[in-house]
Amino acid sequence: MSYDNTNRGALFKNDNKETERHPDYKGNIDVNGVDYWIDAWIKKAESGRTYMSLSVKKKETKKEEKKSRPPKAKDQDPDIPF
After folding, report:
1. 27 neighbors 14 (Cβ within 8 angstroms)
2. 4-34, pLDDT tens digit by residue?
3. DSSP assignment of 10-67
4. Which residues pair with 12 in a beta bridge?
5. What residues have CB less than 8 Å from 43, skipping those under 6 apart?
6. What is the pLDDT of residues 26-63, one digit of tens each?
7. Nearest Cα to Cα of residue 27 among 36, 15, 17, 18
8. Across-strand partners of 58?
9. How many CB atoms lie within 10 A of CB 15?
10. 11 with 40: CB under 8 angstroms?
């Protein structure tokens, strides 16, 4: 029997953080069967309360990555003036 990770995820402390822009925590989450990367930053509100700011990005398969990349110069038609 396999474990069902649907609608579950995990965050891990980012031990490779080099700048303040890098997330404090990184991980992944499954939402309705779709996998996402999730990043979290520990922040402090003006009120003094600590919170996590989150960013979520869909994991892409190799085929999706190739489709979303701009064409390489050799793939462009030299007869097109722009």
Report:
1. no
2. 889 999 999 999 999 999 999 999 999 999 9
3. EEEE-TT--STTS-SEEEEEEETTEEEEEEEEEEE-TTS-EEEEEEEEE---HHHHHH
4. 26
5. 50, 51, 52, 53
6. 999 999 999 999 999 999 999 999 999 999 999 987 76
7. 36
8. 36
9. 6
10. yes
**Which tokens go with 30?**
């499954």
pTM for the full predicted model: 0.70
Give dist(CA 4, CA 1) in Å, integer. 9
Report d(CA 1, CA 79) in Å as an integer: 58
Max CA distance (Å), the chain: 60
Output the CA–CA distances (angstroms, integers) from residue 20 to 13, 16, 27, 44, 74, in the order listed. Answer: 14, 11, 18, 14, 38
Going by the DSSP 8-state scheme, the letter that residue 7 receives in this structure is: T
